[in-house]
Amino acid sequence: MVEKGIGARVLRKEDQRFITGRGRYTDDINQHGQAHAVFLRSPHAHARIRGIDTSAAEAMPGVLAVLTGEDVKADGLGNLVCGWLVKSKDGSPMHMGPHPLLAQEKARYVGDRVAVIVAETLEQAHDAAEAVVVDYEELGPVVALERAHDAGSLVHDEIASNLAYDWELGDKAAVDAAFGRAAHVTRIDLVNNRLVPNAIEPRAAIGHYDPGMDHYTLHVTSQNPHVHRLVMSAFVGVAPEHKLRVVAPDVGGGFGSKIFIYGEECVVLWASKKVRGRPVKWTADRSEAFLSDAHGRDHISHAELALDQDGSFLAMRVNTKANLGAYMSTFSSCIPTYLYGTLLAGQYKTPAIYCDVQAYYTNTAPVDAYRGAGRPEASFLIETLVDQAAGELGMDPAELRRKNFVPKTAFPYQTPVALTYDTGDYEATLDEALRLVDWKGFAARKAESQRRGRLRGIGLSCYIEACGLAPSQVVGSLGAGVGLWESAKVRFSHTGKVQALTGTHSHGQGHETTFAQLVSEKLGIPYEDVEVIHGDTEKTPVGMGTYGSRSLAVGGEALAKACDKLVEKGKKIAAHLLEASEADIEFKDGNFTVAGTDRSKSMGEVVFTAYVPHNYPAGLEPGMEESAFFDPPNFTYPAGTYVCELEIDPATGTTEILRFVAVDDFGNVINPMIVEGQVHGGLAQGIGQALLEGAVYDESGQLLTGSYMDYTMPRADDVPSFEVVTAAGTASHANSLGVKGCGEAGAIGAPAAVINAITNAIGRRVEMPATPEKVWRALQNTQTPQAAE
Amino acid sequence: MKVSMSVNGKQVSGEAEPRTLLVEFLRYELGLTGTHVGCDTSQCGACVVHVNGSSVKSCTMLAVQAEGAQVTTIEGMAQGDELHPLQAAFREHHGLQCGFCTPGMIMSAADLLKTNPSPSEHEVREWLEGNICRCTGYHNIVKAILAAADTMRGAARAAE
After folding, report:
1. Which of A171, A407, A517, B47 has the lowest CB atom count within 10 Å?
2. Is the ipTM reported for this complex over the cut 0.95?
3. One fold for both A372-465+635-788 and A485-630?
4. CA gap A177, A188 in Å, rounded
5. B interface mutation test: which of A13, A16, A20, A288 has the most B CBs within 10 A?
6. In this predicted model, what pLDDT tens digit does every residue of A564-618 receive, in sequence order?
7. What order of strands is seen across the sheet that includes strand A133-138?
8. Model pLDDT for residues A655-677, shown as the tens digit of each residue
9. Between chain A and chain B, how many beta carbons pairs sit less than 8 Å apart?
10. Considering the domain A372-465+635-788, what is its CATH architecture?
11. How distant, in Å, are the alpha carbons of A353, A463, A663, B152 from that of A429?
């Protein structure tokens, strides 16, 4: 038995460098001869660019180049792309407006890149940026999502309207029929508020073209360096793929926002060639991050649930308007469709579901995946709808849910919205959460709060997500432009030490630890002997990166398969050394043993033999290094129950979360400490969405929440200590490890629990973020003015 | 212009413009990249260092204002191979994920524990108001700081 294998609470390998200030993030890297880039950004939401005069800026001290969209065009560089083709109801493909590296003809949101200034120092580049003269003709901006369809202005002149696609999923006729025989229909209108991901490390990139080698290197804050390399070579054409190295060193959080291929990193690489091979560095400041990182969520929905007289769900009908922002970011199209509509069954056996989604362009920052990506929107909608139904029917919200759960005997369960859930036990997580929070004792606690003049509320959320993205053939049939397999290479050295190379990327998730535990367990070698390597396209095998809680379920499984291959090879070598039949060799705890005897060879002896093959099986290749790719047969389906208990001060509308209980089924768990940490972080983001966060644009398209002084990030005193249980999961069947993924659950499940608790406390639902003002106004029975939304 | 100060117990000097912030001087002139920049409005706290014994957001201070000061950064917290109790506690209690806010958290917490060796959970959370973490939900950061406080009180008692 290895000591620090699967299931152990092993402390993290990566921590030593971070706690001593020796992490190596992109902005920590400085290269010889490095120049600095500053992007000039549009101050207007929508404007025609009549001309750009760069002459004064070019004459400023230290300026090496000032480049605009015209230069991009002249050099024949391509546009950024959205890699998932979504089709409208009528079968027509989505309308993708051109997304240039630097704005051409029009600027389409405040913060759109208009020019780049490269100078000897950052200060010189900043100074020169102020000397660039752009002649803008302001155009009417399209800002409000609910008015995007008839805004009187087109974000993309090439497209007939601001509608990018009008997508549907489900059997509309069956749903309509079911509504026709419903005893009760619950209706809800809700907003899923727009969020800014806000990884604490701002995006950064250093592009370097080496003229001697005709080779490009990009250091970039990326969750998926190989995807960066692919898009930058195949679509943007800034460098050929075999001559481009993309390195994502330590990355300070991503939450989706560093999946995407942005213009800035393409431009610094291209600019390095323009300034004759000087490395060119750009680091966003936080203001730029607010303006230009892809935002998340931003839906307006109407949903209806049909129930029979016993409270059984008959059908659900959902219409959603989704904001894409000014351009379609890398994966934007699939978020409000295949990562949203497909999740609308939730944990319930609702027999018929229909959903249609209209996705619109607006003159705001692009919107794409943010922690959970589509699944939080689905979960929030279902769980507030179900709660409201319980209220209308006078039923206990827990019991209404229980009545409609997919029973644990029904797996695999085919939903009416395309997914097949493999495993789960929703009653188990519900029961554990209710027990932990003492659901039955709530009335007494509420009475106690009332005596203190406080309004106490309790709220449930039974979420599900589809993770481990995902089967390539399935996503391909739905429009994905890439396969979503993952890769790994496991390499022994002579001395028995192991390098485990993964195509995924760790930016806080602790892969260096979890993957080392996995490899240690599979190969029966000490955890300390495994080094995990990731984030460099010239070291690791081609991988699709980290998002959608996929790293362990897909990348970890690829590592496991590579380990299995090593064990198989080891058996051949051991059989030879032990003069036994390969079929008689058993591998356990790092030893190859002839079954039923005490004759064995250790993994170390076998590895040494593979590299010093003096006495070796005929025809077998030397060496102990194996690669594997894994393309999963299905998504994984983490699910759980969250309960939030809170108190509201009616005098101020202030909400205080008293308890937050999270019971998750993540299948098997490799490192409970890391998994709990992932849940904590997700919960804080989910609570942030529910209570605090919201990106607000004014009517002219100016971002009003453009700094940490305006956009309310959850701080330590905004959240409670969490009660998290991840034990007793049902193992996934989509991989041999039985794991499901845990990175997004908290952000998916938490918002509905908080909002349902507020509704429970004050008797009416308020839109997210449920700020003290909104709650107070709701208590006064007045409407929040639109402008404050 | 030339600026001189003591950083992590070593006398250093370097070039700074009048507009150069202390954090820029530390990162780009001295190469001490453990101190991070996460915002431009002095809100996130990733850049917290100690100046003359007190925690300071090094983005709110010009390098020239630190002339002659005693500055401690995250790189100066461990004594050789021996981690500061806060560093050890952050590792022990999984108080960090991506690591970007961690140096500021540790430096800020060190100042708290100097003035309040036995903080309550509530006091820790209030103190951390000026430090933003997006990964951990603060749960394990708070746990780590409370545990470090315990360790440091034990060490102080043992030394008496």
Report:
1. A407
2. yes
3. yes
4. 20
5. A20
6. 999 999 999 999 999 999 999 999 999 999 999 999 999 999 999 999 999 999 9
7. A106-107, A47-53, A133-138
8. 999 999 999 999 999 999 999 99
9. 182
10. 2-Layer Sandwich (3.30)
11. 24, 11, 6, 39
